[in-house]
Request: fold
Amino acid sequence: MNLNILLLPGDGIGVEVTREAVKVLRQVASAFKHELTLSEGLLGGIAIQKTGVPFPDETRELALKTDATLLGAVGLPEFDNAPPEKRPERGLLGIRKALGVYANLRPVRSYKALINSSPLKNELVDGTDMIIVRELTGGLYYGTPRGISGSGAEERAVNTMIYTRPEIERVAHMAFQLAGKRRKKVTSVDKSNVLENSQLWRRVVTEIAARYPDVTLDHILVDNCAMQLVLQPRRFDVVLTENMFGDILSDEGAVLAGSIGMLPSASIGDKRPSGAWVGLYEPVHGSAPDIAGKNKANPLGAIGSVAALLEYSFGLTEEARAVYGAIENVLNAGRVTADLKPAGTPASTSEVGDAVCEALSAHAAIA
Ligand code: NAD
Reply:
């Protein structure tokens, strides 16, 4: 298969973890005999520095041409007080919208080797295995009218939470299809006791559920969901929710796994004529300016994003399984970065990347 992939390393540790993810991609391509076509573009702070905007047209064109995009992270402290259109994070919203990736998938699972790194008691977190499906291109983050107007006592701020039926339907289909391949349970999260927006969400999700009779659906209010995620995380299989609720809940999910550096994410849109699903893959973490440039960042979230890319965009489940297996191997061997608090000397970013590649080549030799 020809894997046509755009790399957007971005800023800070994004560059370091993407480097390791690419090592792993090359290893997979060679072990499983795929052809790899890689291109590279600018996004975020580095794009502002070089072109004046966070999401240059050239990057947009590259992203629209390739099957899948692998992103590191964006964000540089020098832009913290810049106006919104000159902030690196605007680049992220721009590329998500341009690619039409409307569903963000965040797998959250507890690894045996990391169980002590979780802030939760072992018996609570052990066996956790869920995917949070967050609607990504609608809701409060994109709705208009928006803005701040007036001054003094008259100053006011407005944001608009808006969802259309088709926006809810397509992400709900994605969640039910995923659940069909897992433990067959969707939990839809809303705030329907207060928001009309959520009332429509709940009604449409219930209608879509009728088309997936082998998947069970339950509904939960977002405040209760935030509580249940830490009280009984094992109860969740696929969690389906709108943009802002998903943003918040998925960070809560992130800590269940022990370190934010562990978590991959996949943002998926429609199918390309080539048969590949349009996808934007990135670790959940940001650019971590506090550890950038020190070869200390955990690259496993970025490497897990490679596995997700292989699985969701190209349907290469065996290759994805090999990458997840190699990650587990490296965790079991304790060859991990400082954030995972290993017993001995922590490994560097590049050492972890090398260890994953070694585990992959051992796997290929056995296979
Ligand atoms: P962050 O995720 O960058 O860092 C939070 C904490 O987690 C830091 O202490 C950091 O050292 C640690 N951390 C993060 N990733 C790690 C890894 N792979 N290995 C080890 N430790 C890791 O979040 P932040 O500090 O709130 O934001 C920093 C910048 O990143 C900001 O500019 C923010 O806007 C941006 N950001 C970007 C994204 C993205 O690109 N998707 C996401 C979140 C934040």
